[in-house]
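Dear support,

I submitted the protein below through the web form. The confirmation email said the job was done, but the results page showed an empty box. After a refresh the structure appeared. I'm attaching both so you can tell me whether what I see now is the final result or a partial one.
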Amino acid sequence: MILMSNQEFYMLTAYIKRKFGVHLGLEKKTLVQGRLHKIIANMNCAGVKEYYEYLINDRTGQADVELVNAITTNHTFFMRESSHFECFSEQVLPYLYKKVQDRNLRIWCAACSTGEEAYTLAMLINDFFSIKSQGWDTKLLATDICLNALDIARQGIYSADSLSNIPKKWKNIYFKKQDENEYQVIPLLKNEVIYRQFNLINGQFPFKKKFHTIFCRNVMIYFDVPTRQALVRKFYDYLEPGGYLFIGHSEVLDHSNAFKCVMPAVYRKE
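What the results page shows now:
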């Protein structure tokens, strides 16, 4: 195991925070050390300082990709925090169906990880618009900083156990059985999700149009207060009036934000 001093840990985690917004306290030292051991060893670096020099001097972007793939935790599952999906299906979609005049539905899954949340949203949207879809663009954008997670999402292959939370109807309609233990999302549903790599702490968002709903759940817990506040302000700016923001149940927006809370972890731009 390659060991790092506290000074090396602070040096490395300052870089991680600057690049990705992820705040890692000293209590995470063992975790960071363990996750970076293989990368540093495979590179034949003498230690953390040499690896850090590699990070700051790399111009290809590959070093950052390897780093963020190693330190991020992509834990998610279908129908996670199911009350949010009930709200989206029963409250948000009917509202947007009446409100959106150009029939261009703009939903952003802003930290999609391995795709379970994005495909859950796609199934809800497809169910709602199956009869009403004439002329509607219902594709949704799903982004994540981790390329490994995005590769899994694009493949859309999941274990049988991971589908245990979804309705049997969805399993029959939207998934094709590969073998006894694996199912794959059907092309019709895959085509409804546009996957892209995106860093949420980028200075400027590249989007030309505002969104009607943003899901960004269980990500801001890794950010410090100023980073979180700046991101929430950008979410507000990039939502249409009346648009919704869904965050994780373990996350709370402070009173400085302009959103109205409509239910636990669900906010609306008035």
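Response: this is the final, complete result; the empty box was a page-load delay. The chain has two domains: 6-71, 82-268.
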